[in-house]
Amino acid sequence: MQSRSWLMRPFGERSTLIFIAVLLAAMALVTLLHLAVPPGHSLHVSAYTVNLFGKYLSYALLAVAVDLVWGSLGILSLGHGAFFALGGYAMGMYLMRQIGDRGVYGHPVLPDFMVFLNWDSLPWYWHGFDMAGFAFLMVLLAPGALALIFGFLAFRSRVTGVYLSIITQALTFALMLAFFRNEMGFGGNNGLTDFREILGFNLRSSETRLGLFLASGVALAVGYLLCRAIVTSKLGRVCVATRDAEARTRFLGYRVERFQLFVFVVSAMLAGLAGALYVPQVGIINPSEFSPLFSIEIVLWVALGGRSTLYGAVIGAILVNYAKTVFTGAMPDAWLFALGGLFVLVTVFLPRGVAGLLSLRLRRRRDADASFSAKEASA
User: Fold this and answer.
1) Which of 8, 91, 126, 350 is the most buried (most CB within 10 A)?
2) Is 372 buried (19+), middle (13-18) or exposed (0-12) by CB count in 10 A?
3) Residues 34, 47: contact at Cβ < 8 Å?
4) CB of 282 within 8 A of CB of 149?
């Protein structure tokens, strides 16, 4: 009964209900404008735009995962791109196995890049990825296992603060260098690409793109609710206490490293799920997703949107990536300068991000309404 109550607690929050309602309404609107409005109409949402929105939603789920550990635990992870990429590679391996003999070289088992590199057999770690259930399970287990091992060693050794951030960054950089090697069996520099279908559906069809967009939205909603359930539970309160005063929390008898490890693993699995949803929508996964710069960019999304709010991470991810789409098309050389300037402006004038600005306005409105009601009552 207790476990059910903490899972249902987010449904009693007004902010959570508003977020879920806005997300579902946006998904329904995009679907309606894509299916009901004929192409060529000014309100029609094309398959390309649907695909772009789906990528934004997968990024939003990744930002929520980062905000879970940064906002509630105070762990600034600069390596969540590694968990995102591992989930993406697990999905990419499944999609590559679905190509079969329709590849360039026509081999029924080996992917094209293995045939090109003269591999004579499929590596053992590729076995099972021809089955959707196994592949989808590995989307969660691969990043979860890495987070479990890394987190156990780091939290048990009480590595915190900037040292932990540097280690997470070193982790993703090491994985990037490893995946660049052709000997690893993951496509080297080119990665995995030329996907054809998922669960029997053509990835190039507009119906499949719409389905992936809806799946990304549902995953974001479920991931957000799970994170809110964790944050508002007793576990979440211990995490906040650990963030604000770890030594005092240990003194009270809590095994802090266990709480840190659990939340870190959950966050990594959500990041892996985001990567798995991202790959079939963009059509490629390569070692650049392990880049430390990408992990730093994720942190910027959360900081711009508003740390410790979860919905702020969603806002930040969507706003920054939309701006990136616009700026890279209009001024590709100026995008990084625009992102840096935006981060500086928000840090100076909006230290709590966009979400902090929204909450401030709501608080002022409530105070004004309360003051007006008090004046009416006294009159």
Assistant:
1) 91
2) exposed
3) yes
4) no
DSSP string spanning 115-175?
A: HHTT--S--GGGTTTTSHHHHHHHHHHHHHHHHHHHHHHHHHTT--HHHHHHHHHHHHHHH
Q: Is 362 helix (H, G, I), strand (E, B) or coil?
A: helix
Four-point Cα dihedral 31, 36, 39, 40, nearest 10? -110
Q: What are phi and psi of 197, to 5 degrees?
A: -150, 160
Residues with Cβ within 8 Å of residue 42, at least 6 apart in sequence: none
The DSSP 8-state label assigned to residue 285 in this structure reads: E
Listed in sequence order, the residues at least 6 apart from 113 whose beta carbon sits closer than 8 Å to its beta carbon are 187, 188, 190
CA nearest to 294, candidates 61, 126, 63 = 63
- Give the chain's residues under pLDDT 70: 1-4, 358-379
Helix or strand holding residue 202 (H, E):
strand 201-202
Q: What is the pLDDT of residue 1?
A: 42
- Please name the amino acid found at residue 287: P
Largest Cα span, the chain? 89
Which pLDDT score, from 0 to 100, does residue 3 have?
Answer: 46
pTM score of the predicted model: 0.92
Tokens of 217: 């939205």
Query: What are the phi and psi torsion angles at 43 (to 5°)?
Result: -95, 0
Q: Which tokens hold the place of 175?
A: 């994985």
Helix then strand then coil, % of the chain, to nearest 5: 75, 0, 20
Backbone angles phi, psi at 202, to 5 degrees: -70, 125
In the prediction, which pLDDT does 9 show? Answer: 82
Q: Are 46 and 39 in contact (CB under 8 A)?
A: yes
* Residue 93 · residue 126 · CB < 8 Å: yes
Is residue 285 within 8 Å of 92, Cβ to Cβ? Answer: yes
CA R_g for the chain = 22
Q: Is 197 helix (H, G, I), strand (E, B) or coil?
A: strand
Is the Cβ–Cβ distance between 201 and 207 less than 8 Å?
Answer: yes
CA distance 130 to 96: 9
Predicted pLDDT at 2: 47
